[in-house]
């Protein structure tokens, strides 16, 4: 009885007649970044973070219209939406200042 090594390359013949010799795929990883390439995409310009103050009206995608009742610097706000009071981390794509 002969044993084959499990990693040994096999010759495979596909139905269309193409013969492959255990080809391996290229290692996973990103492409190399070339700094001065005209094809590299520039980073999008970031807008300054929106600031909230106590009393500001806000609109949240899920909770609706509300009013800011507390701020903790630029990291989070506490807003009263009528039926619920929520602490929301900033910046939040779901929260907009009105």
Care to describe what's here?
This protein has 98 residues and is mainly beta. It is built from no helices and 7 strands. The strands form 2 sheets. The chain has a 5-stranded antiparallel β-sheet with strand order 6-5-4-3-7, with no helix packed on it. Strands 1-2 form a two-stranded antiparallel sheet. It is elongated and about 75 Å long. The chain starts with 10 loop residues before the first strand and ends with a strand.
Globally, the shape reads: elongated
Q: End-to-end distance, in Å?
A: 79 Å
- Please report the number of helical segments: 0
**pLDDT averaged over residues:** 79
Bin the strand percentage.
25-35%
Number of strands: 7
Provide the low-confidence segments as ranges.
Answer: none
Strands ordered across the widest β-sheet = 6-5-4-3-7
Helix content percent band:
under 10%
What are the secondary-structure elements, in order, as H or E? EEEEEEE
**Major sheet summary line:** 5 strands, antiparallel
CA radius of gyration: 28 Å
Structural class: mainly beta
């Amino acid at each position: 009885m002969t044993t084959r090594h499990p990693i040994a390359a096999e010759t495979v013949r596909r139905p269309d007649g193409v013969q492959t010799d255990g080809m391996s795929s290229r290692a996973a990883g990103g492409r190399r970044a070339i700094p001065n390439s005209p094809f590299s995409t520039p980073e999008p310009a970031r807008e300054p973070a929106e600031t909230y103050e106590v009393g500001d009206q806000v609109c949240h995608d899920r909770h609706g219209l509300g009013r800011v009742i507390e701020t903790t610097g630029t990291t989070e706000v506490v807003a009263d939406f009528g039926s619920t009071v929520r602490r929301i981390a900033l910046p939040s794509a779901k929260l907009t200042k009105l």
